[in-house]
Amino acid sequence: MSNKENDIKKYSFIDSFTEWSMKWVPDSMVFVLALTVIVYLLALGITDRGPLELIDDYAQGFWVLLTFAMQLSLLMITGFIVVESEFVKGHLIKLIDIPKTVTATLIIYCLIVAIFSWLHWGMGYMLAMLLGREIAIRKKGIGLDYALLAAAGYCTFLVGANGPAQSAPLIAATPGNFLEQTIGHLVPLTSTALSPFLLTLVVTQLIALIIFFLVIHPKKEKAVEIDEETWKALSQPISNVESADEVKSLRPAERWERSRIFPTLIAIAILVWVGKTLWVSGFGKVDINFLNYLFFALALLLQKTPLNFMSAVKKGVGTTYGVMIQFPLYAGIFGIISFSGLSHSITEAFLYISTPETYSWIVMVYTVIMDFFIPSGGSKFAVEAPFIIPAGQQLGVPVEHVINAYSTGSQMANFIQPFWALAFLATFKLKFQKILPYTFIAFLLVFSIATAAFLIQPY
User: Fold this and answer.
1) Is-annotated flag, keyword Iron-sulfur (predicted)?
2) Secondary structure element (H or E) that encloses residue 247, with its range
3) Residues 132, 137, 143, 148: what is their CA dihedral angle, to the nearest 10 degrees?
């Protein structure tokens, strides 16, 4: 078969998959509503909870993600404001202008996203969104497929995020955690996120993903770049520049709106706290609240005035609507699964079919399935760890290997689950259906690699 025939076959497959996805895969709102009904019926059939009791469980869980929803919304908005500043945007543009080809652009983008995601998922998530958006704007005309670019950033973020900032390994390494008495000791990060096994797995998956996206990227004439309407919407500058005459005629209140005094003072105070915290406690204290505090200060400092700051907020707040509305629905699903005992029933079913040689892999598969319904690793680990950790110990599987399997599975579910893609795709102004053909194949790829890893080294 000629190269031309191979290209036609490859693009026809992706086009057909995209067409199928747009036709049959519903909007993420429909997706979460359907998941709610499915989980409710499963709990009704498997557990001893009655119909009204399950509604109570749903109500009990409905609000548990409110804090996280606000945290993620702030991370998105403050990150957006920082990148919209003249200083940061200028340096991003210089970085983006270094690669001249589609191949070089994708490689640099994926590597930067993966590295920052590994250091901290919050930084990687924000960078994947905002750097990807600027690449789409700046590289329009070179034949860079827009949906593939978004999918590449999203997938490399997910693989890279299997690092030291993951909830499960962090919890197990923290003195006084809820597992310490069960396990009998702490599990250091050097045995989990920083172990040679997991580092090798993450690097292998990352290399495979980059190769996949380079191979699957269409030729220039077939690539669907960012459309003109989206390009104009994303590239529209925030401008509050006023002439000298306009400034002279301002009222005192309007002058304060354009003053740098208060934003600068507050930003400096926050940055002093950030520096002190890092000096005293190191990077072990870096969490989503720390990042939000840091980026809030940077946003105030870089936008300079309250007027500029709020103009950027108004432009960026539209990216958060999916998080605000859909997170409570996912929290309700969490409530049904956790409080009804459905989680325990599913865990017992997987344990029944496990052996020492397959347990780690089964934990990974189980986590993929559970994360499909409850895509929030930290709170879910608190529910599941009391079951999966002791069971692994009974089978002779080291705790650290169970945690590695768990953290690997919790990332992979998000390839085909729109929860984490909501905010991400809002930045690109894309629907999940547009990237699903790429993320689904990427899921099969990284799942196959992880399967081989955990079956070859089961403990």
Assistant:
1) no
2) helix 244-248
3) 30
**Other CB atoms within 10 Å distance of the CB of residue 448:** 12
* Domain-located, residue 384: yes
Burial call 371-389: b when 16+ CB within 10 Å, e when fewer: bebbbbbebbbbbbbebbb
Quick: pLDDT tens for 55-106. 999 999 898 878 877 887 887 788 778 877 888 878 877 888 889 899 999 9
CB atoms within 10 A of CB 243: 8
Residue at 7 is within a domain: no
Average pLDDT, integer, range 145-166: 91
Round to whole Å and give the CA distance between 245 and 401: 68
With vertex at residue 327, the alpha carbon angle to CA 318 and CA 349, rounded to the nearest 5 degrees, is: 150
Q: What Rg do the C-alpha atoms of the chain give, in angstroms?
A: 23
Burial label for 245, CB within 10 Å (0-12, 13-18, 19+), is exposed
Instruction: Give the separation between CA 57 and CA 337, rounded to whole angstroms.
Output: 8
Domain contains 50: yes
Instruction: Give the list of residues 6+ apart from residue 154 with CB closer than 8 angstroms, or none.
Output: 128, 420, 421, 424, 425, 435, 439
For residue 260, what is the DSSP state?
Answer: S
Please, are residues 234 and 137 in contact by the beta-carbon 8 Å criterion?
yes
What domain count does the chain have? 1
Structural contact between residues 29 and 325, judged by C-beta atoms closer than 8 angstroms: yes
Predicted structure pTM score: 0.76
pLDDT of 244 reads: 47
329, 332, 333, 339: CA torsion to nearest 10: 170
Residue 13 included in any domain: no
